[in-house]
Structures are given as structure tokens and as C-alpha cells.
């Protein structure tokens, strides 16, 4: 029996290496047994927060018969960059809207032209994030898209919200023409604050 034991130092090293590999294999096998079968990597989650759900229901009740309501729309789908911006300004403007979403977008039912956007007031934001959000909303208004604010702490009645939306749309500048079939989509243009904006003093008539 003793003849089977390692004698030289090299034999002991080889024996230790083999023993270490065996222990490593046993450890991996035992770990897999303890883990059990592989678990599902994904699980469902809520599409909207409770506040967003309440706001969507309120908007549908207030204006759903006249306007289509879309939720969580990417700002890059709503806004295009001003081609007159310099490279650094374009990069900054794109960085400001990248990954950002608008809570709700109100569109005409016939041609799906964007008429206004709705932003939920988020009191949980820090002062810095709050200022950035206000600046972003101001940029959106500068493109000609009205911004309607809703506070989860004080929801308006459907009738009051309906009147507010209609009053806001009456003050909206002339709508962007809908492109003909085969043409690219025309988007509102996002400019930086120092860009000069043309002002139209003619108040348009409201149409849905």
C-alpha cells in the first residue's frame, strides 16, 4: 500500500495537482446541484407606474374622443436637430434628448399629427435634474409643441383638463404640414436658446 504513495517531490506535486482538479470538479458539480434547474432570466413588469396609469385614464376620459393619446414616446422620435447648429451644438442638443421620453403625446386622430405633449410633474427629482427637465420642456415649447403639465398630487377633473387642452391648442402655432406619401417625416426642429426663432403673431384657428 505504501508503495503507491508518491516518493519524490515531483510525484507529490503531480498528486496534489490531480487532487486539486478532482476537488474543483466536485465543487462545480455540487454547486450546480445546489442551484437546481436554470431559472427564467426575465419576468414581467408593469408597463406604466400607478401615476402614469391614472394620468392615461384621465387623458382618455378628458380628450380621448377627439385626440389620440400615446404614452412614453421617445423625444428623438418627436424632435429633429436644427441643421443650422454647429457640430458641438448638435452634439449637445442630441445628448440632451437621447434616451429621454415624453410622458404622453396628443395627436390628431386622422393624420396623427402631434398637437401637444403632456408632462407629469415629478417632485422626486433633485434640483439639478428638475432644472434640466424644465429646460428640456422649454426647448420642446420653443419648437412649437405646447406642453401641458399634470400633477399626480392634484389631478384636475376630466372637464377641466379638456378645457385646458383645447385652450392650449388654440394658442398653438400653425401646424407642420403632413408629408405626402413617399416623403420623409417632418419633425419639429430643436434649437439651442441662442438660436433666433421666427415669431408668427397670427393666431390659428383650432381644428382637430
Q: N- to C-terminal separation?
A: 97 Å
Strand content bin: 5-15%
- Main sheet summary: 4 strands, mixed
Instruction: Provide the gyration radius in Å.
Output: 30 Å
> In what order do the strands lie side by side in the largest sheet?
1-3-4-5
Shape verdict: elongated
pLDDT < 50 stretches: 195-208
From the helix content, strand content and strand pairing, which structural class follows? alpha/beta
pLDDT averaged over residues: 82
- The number of distinct helices, counting runs of at least 4 residues, comes to 6
Quaternary structure of the protein:
single chain
Q: Could you estimate the helical fraction of the residues in percent?
A: 40-55%
Number of strands: 6
SSE pattern, N- to C-terminal: HHEHEHEEHEHE
Domain DUF2726: 45-165
Organism: Oceanisphaera arctica
Keywords: Membrane, Transmembrane, Transmembrane helix
InterPro entries: DUF2726
List the helices and strands and how they pair.
Layout: H1 9-35, H2 50-63, E1 68-74, H3 75-78, E2 80-81, H4 87-97, E3 101-107, E4 114-120, H5 127-142, E5 147-150, H6 158-170, E6 189-190
Parallel strand pairs: 2-6, 4-5
Antiparallel strand pairs: 1-3, 3-4
Helix pairs in contact: 2-6
